[in-house]
Amino acid sequence: MLAYILRRLLLIIPTLFGILVINFAIIQAAPGGPVEQMIAKLEGFDAASGGATGRISGGGGEVATAGSNYRGAQGLDPELIAEIEKMYGFDKSAPERFWIMVKNYAQLDFGDSFFRDAKVIDLIMEKMPVSISLGLWSTLIMYLVSIPLGIAKATRHGSAFDVWTSSAIIIGYAIPAFLFAILLIVLFAGGSYWDWFPLRGLTSSNFDELSFSGKVIDYFWHLALPVTALVIGNFATLTLLTKNSFLDEINKQYVTTARAKGLSNARVLYGHVFRNAMLLIIAGFPSAFIGIFFTGSLLIEVIFSLDGLGLLSFEAAINRDYPVVFGTLFIFTLLGLVVKLIGDITYTLVDPRIDFESREA
After folding, report:
1. How many domains is the chain partitioned into structurally?
2. Interatomic CA distance for residues 274 and 258, integer angstroms
């Protein structure tokens, strides 16, 4: 198992490199880079809304005559254009800029944001608490609700309980998380009815003045609505996956044999079925966590005014803040690969019969 873990850790390096290469090439073809953004600001236009839609010729910063390769640059001093290119590193060719980026990333140096006047790593660490809070608690609650509910539905398949819970699950799945978030605001955050929960931020303005218990209560008070919105939109798939996985195992021959030996239903379910049925559920944990952690919370962050990684990445992409775009991409990908490896290790803890090393031999 140790050899398998080492191989997987080594495989992370070429995987990260390949993802960076592909995304770097795509970014070069996208119009409205940082140089165009700055030119648009100097000309008084909003580049994000289309004021500067040109791109660097050749897609990599190779500039023939300063100012002639950018839309909206007419009338600006060519020396000023050259200074802007140098400021953002576009006085170098695309391969050279990519190689510099890779060398810096190898030293965990993600550079500085183009437009926020801060280091990329500091921005990520600043936004991390929001995304960790949303991802961790949403995933935890989702699994704590979905697995027991799925098991209960499997053991009572076809009963009235199974039917009405399935109806509730389908309704919850059909409502988008952002729409449910708006409904929660209307009902419980002073929209039209009750004003029970705060509408913005992860903590209150007087958070530092509160006692420890007061801080804990305040923290979860702010998280109640956004986490609920995320859970409602994501627990349906896991619940049905758990039910179908357990149903498949319950109908197998070894379960019939165990019952014929006089074992109780609880002993059969949790002593034999549980270990086998949970393998499929564990397989989906990394993608579920990463999905809610990074992508699934973007609209929730916007609706509840939570300044997290999802919003940071979105704004960086819109503003062509390349250091932030690639820095967050690198960290997201690295975390995703590590969590996937942890999922494989968890496989062996649940069922020691699984041996990934022998499979690769």
Report:
1. 2
2. 14
